[in-house]
Amino acid sequence: KLTEKKEDAYKLYFENFPKHSRMPAVLFSFGLQKLAAEDYTGAMDYFKKIQTTYTNSTPYFDSINRIATCYEKLGDVTNEVKVLEGYIQELEKAGTSVDAIRGKYRLAIALRKMGPKSMGAALNRFGELDKQLSDPKHPYQKTPEEKETSDRILEGSKFFKALCYASLTQPEDKLASYK
To answer: E strand or H helix at 86, and its extent?
Structure first.
Protein backbone atom coordinates (compact mmCIF):
# COMPACT_ATOMS: atom_id res chain seq x y z
CA LYS A 1 0.00 0.00 0.00
CA LEU A 2 2.87 2.35 0.81
CA THR A 3 4.40 1.59 -2.59
CA GLU A 4 1.15 2.59 -4.33
CA LYS A 5 1.08 5.90 -2.43
CA LYS A 6 4.69 6.53 -3.33
CA GLU A 7 3.97 5.83 -7.01
CA ASP A 8 0.92 8.12 -6.89
CA ALA A 9 3.01 10.91 -5.35
CA TYR A 10 5.67 10.55 -8.04
CA LYS A 11 3.02 10.55 -10.78
CA LEU A 12 1.86 13.90 -9.48
CA TYR A 13 5.47 15.10 -9.42
CA PHE A 14 6.02 13.93 -13.02
CA GLU A 15 2.84 15.61 -14.23
CA ASN A 16 3.10 18.88 -12.34
CA PHE A 17 6.82 19.63 -12.17
CA PRO A 18 8.34 18.70 -15.55
CA LYS A 19 10.85 21.58 -15.35
CA HIS A 20 12.15 20.66 -11.90
CA SER A 21 15.95 20.44 -11.94
CA ARG A 22 15.94 16.90 -10.51
CA MET A 23 13.39 15.54 -12.99
CA PRO A 24 15.88 13.83 -15.37
CA ALA A 25 17.69 12.16 -12.45
CA VAL A 26 14.42 10.96 -10.89
CA LEU A 27 13.17 9.63 -14.24
CA PHE A 28 16.49 7.85 -14.77
CA SER A 29 16.32 6.34 -11.29
CA PHE A 30 12.81 5.03 -11.96
CA GLY A 31 13.97 3.64 -15.30
CA LEU A 32 16.82 1.80 -13.60
CA GLN A 33 14.42 0.34 -11.04
CA LYS A 34 12.15 -0.94 -13.82
CA LEU A 35 15.17 -2.30 -15.69
CA ALA A 36 16.37 -4.15 -12.58
CA ALA A 37 12.87 -5.59 -12.17
CA GLU A 38 13.05 -6.76 -15.82
CA ASP A 39 10.13 -4.51 -16.79
CA TYR A 40 11.83 -3.41 -19.99
CA THR A 41 8.82 -1.69 -21.52
CA GLY A 42 8.25 0.29 -18.32
CA ALA A 43 11.93 1.18 -18.14
CA MET A 44 11.89 2.42 -21.73
CA ASP A 45 9.03 4.78 -20.92
CA TYR A 46 11.21 6.60 -18.39
CA PHE A 47 14.35 6.55 -20.55
CA LYS A 48 12.46 7.76 -23.64
CA LYS A 49 11.04 10.67 -21.64
CA ILE A 50 14.61 11.75 -20.89
CA GLN A 51 15.67 11.20 -24.51
CA THR A 52 12.89 13.34 -25.92
CA THR A 53 12.48 16.01 -23.24
CA TYR A 54 15.74 16.41 -21.34
CA THR A 55 18.35 16.37 -24.10
CA ASN A 56 20.84 18.52 -22.20
CA SER A 57 20.63 16.55 -18.97
CA THR A 58 23.35 14.42 -17.42
CA PRO A 59 21.51 11.09 -17.91
CA TYR A 60 20.66 11.82 -21.57
CA PHE A 61 23.28 9.56 -23.18
CA ASP A 62 22.88 6.85 -20.55
CA SER A 63 19.14 6.87 -21.23
CA ILE A 64 19.63 6.22 -24.94
CA ASN A 65 22.08 3.45 -24.08
CA ARG A 66 19.52 1.88 -21.72
CA ILE A 67 16.79 2.08 -24.37
CA ALA A 68 19.01 -0.03 -26.61
CA THR A 69 19.56 -2.44 -23.71
CA CYS A 70 15.79 -2.74 -23.21
CA TYR A 71 15.28 -3.55 -26.88
CA GLU A 72 18.08 -6.12 -26.63
CA LYS A 73 16.44 -7.75 -23.60
CA LEU A 74 13.08 -7.77 -25.40
CA GLY A 75 14.72 -9.48 -28.39
CA ASP A 76 13.89 -6.57 -30.72
CA VAL A 77 17.20 -6.39 -32.57
CA THR A 78 15.87 -4.13 -35.33
CA ASN A 79 14.98 -1.34 -32.89
CA GLU A 80 18.14 -2.01 -30.89
CA VAL A 81 20.17 -1.32 -34.06
CA LYS A 82 18.21 1.86 -34.82
CA VAL A 83 18.71 3.20 -31.30
CA LEU A 84 22.42 2.32 -31.28
CA GLU A 85 22.97 4.05 -34.63
CA GLY A 86 21.38 7.23 -33.25
CA TYR A 87 23.28 6.84 -29.99
CA ILE A 88 26.60 6.66 -31.81
CA GLN A 89 25.78 9.74 -33.91
CA GLU A 90 24.84 11.70 -30.78
CA LEU A 91 28.02 10.64 -28.99
CA GLU A 92 30.22 11.55 -31.93
CA LYS A 93 28.57 14.98 -32.20
CA ALA A 94 29.25 15.52 -28.50
CA GLY A 95 32.86 14.36 -28.85
CA THR A 96 32.62 11.41 -26.45
CA SER A 97 34.68 9.01 -28.51
CA VAL A 98 35.24 6.35 -25.83
CA ASP A 99 31.51 5.79 -25.39
CA ALA A 100 31.06 5.91 -29.17
CA ILE A 101 33.53 3.02 -29.50
CA ARG A 102 31.52 1.01 -26.97
CA GLY A 103 28.36 1.85 -28.89
CA LYS A 104 29.92 0.77 -32.19
CA TYR A 105 30.91 -2.54 -30.64
CA ARG A 106 27.37 -3.12 -29.36
CA LEU A 107 26.00 -2.17 -32.79
CA ALA A 108 28.29 -4.66 -34.54
CA ILE A 109 27.16 -7.42 -32.17
CA ALA A 110 23.51 -6.51 -32.74
CA LEU A 111 24.00 -6.57 -36.51
CA ARG A 112 25.58 -10.01 -36.21
CA LYS A 113 22.52 -11.22 -34.29
CA MET A 114 20.29 -10.15 -37.18
CA GLY A 115 21.56 -13.08 -39.21
CA PRO A 116 23.11 -13.73 -42.61
CA LYS A 117 21.63 -10.67 -44.35
CA SER A 118 23.38 -8.33 -41.91
CA MET A 119 26.61 -10.31 -41.56
CA GLY A 120 28.44 -8.12 -44.07
CA ALA A 121 27.45 -4.96 -42.16
CA ALA A 122 28.55 -6.57 -38.88
CA LEU A 123 31.83 -7.62 -40.46
CA ASN A 124 32.44 -4.06 -41.67
CA ARG A 125 31.72 -2.65 -38.20
CA PHE A 126 34.08 -5.10 -36.51
CA GLY A 127 36.70 -4.26 -39.15
CA GLU A 128 36.32 -0.52 -38.48
CA LEU A 129 36.77 -1.10 -34.75
CA ASP A 130 39.80 -3.29 -35.39
CA LYS A 131 41.35 -0.56 -37.53
CA GLN A 132 40.51 2.28 -35.11
CA LEU A 133 41.69 0.49 -31.99
CA SER A 134 44.82 -1.04 -33.55
CA ASP A 135 46.21 2.44 -34.19
CA PRO A 136 48.60 3.10 -31.26
CA LYS A 137 47.80 6.82 -31.43
CA HIS A 138 44.03 6.44 -31.24
CA PRO A 139 42.31 8.87 -28.86
CA TYR A 140 40.26 6.22 -27.09
CA GLN A 141 42.61 5.49 -24.23
CA LYS A 142 43.44 8.51 -22.16
CA THR A 143 43.36 6.60 -18.85
CA PRO A 144 44.45 3.07 -17.89
CA GLU A 145 40.78 2.09 -17.57
CA GLU A 146 40.04 3.35 -21.09
CA LYS A 147 43.06 1.47 -22.43
CA GLU A 148 41.82 -1.71 -20.79
CA THR A 149 38.34 -1.18 -22.25
CA SER A 150 39.80 -0.46 -25.70
CA ASP A 151 41.93 -3.60 -25.51
CA ARG A 152 38.90 -5.74 -24.56
CA ILE A 153 36.81 -4.24 -27.38
CA LEU A 154 39.67 -4.80 -29.85
CA GLU A 155 40.01 -8.41 -28.74
CA GLY A 156 36.24 -8.95 -28.98
CA SER A 157 36.11 -7.27 -32.38
CA LYS A 158 38.79 -9.56 -33.76
CA PHE A 159 37.03 -12.60 -32.34
CA PHE A 160 33.61 -11.67 -33.72
CA LYS A 161 35.12 -10.61 -37.03
CA ALA A 162 36.55 -14.12 -37.36
CA LEU A 163 33.16 -15.61 -36.46
CA CYS A 164 31.49 -13.45 -39.10
CA TYR A 165 33.93 -14.61 -41.74
CA ALA A 166 33.41 -18.24 -40.69
CA SER A 167 29.64 -17.92 -41.00
CA LEU A 168 29.63 -16.34 -44.47
CA THR A 169 28.16 -18.56 -47.16
CA GLN A 170 28.49 -16.25 -50.18
CA PRO A 171 30.14 -15.54 -52.54
CA GLU A 172 31.08 -19.18 -52.99
CA ASP A 173 34.32 -18.44 -54.86
CA LYS A 174 35.72 -16.60 -51.81
CA LEU A 175 34.59 -18.96 -49.06
CA ALA A 176 37.91 -20.73 -48.80
CA SER A 177 39.73 -17.47 -48.15
CA TYR A 178 37.21 -16.51 -45.44
CA LYS A 179 37.68 -19.72 -43.52
So the answer is: helix 77-94
Q: Is the pLDDT at 145 greater than 90, yes or no? A: no
- 57, 50 contact by CB (below 8 A): yes
| Residue 5, C-beta contacts closer than 8 angstroms, at least 6 positions apart | none
pLDDT at residue 152 above 60?
yes
Categorize the per-residue pLDDT at 166 as very low, low, confident or very high, splitting at 50, 70 and 90. confident
Provide the whole-model pTM: 0.84
Alpha carbon distance 26, 42 (integer Å): 14
* Amino acid code (one letter) for 123: L
Number of Cβ within 10 Å of residue 85's Cβ equals 16
What single letter denotes the amino acid at residue 33?
A: Q
Distances in Å between the Cα of 122 and the Cα atoms of 3, 8, 33, 157 are 44, 45, 32, 10
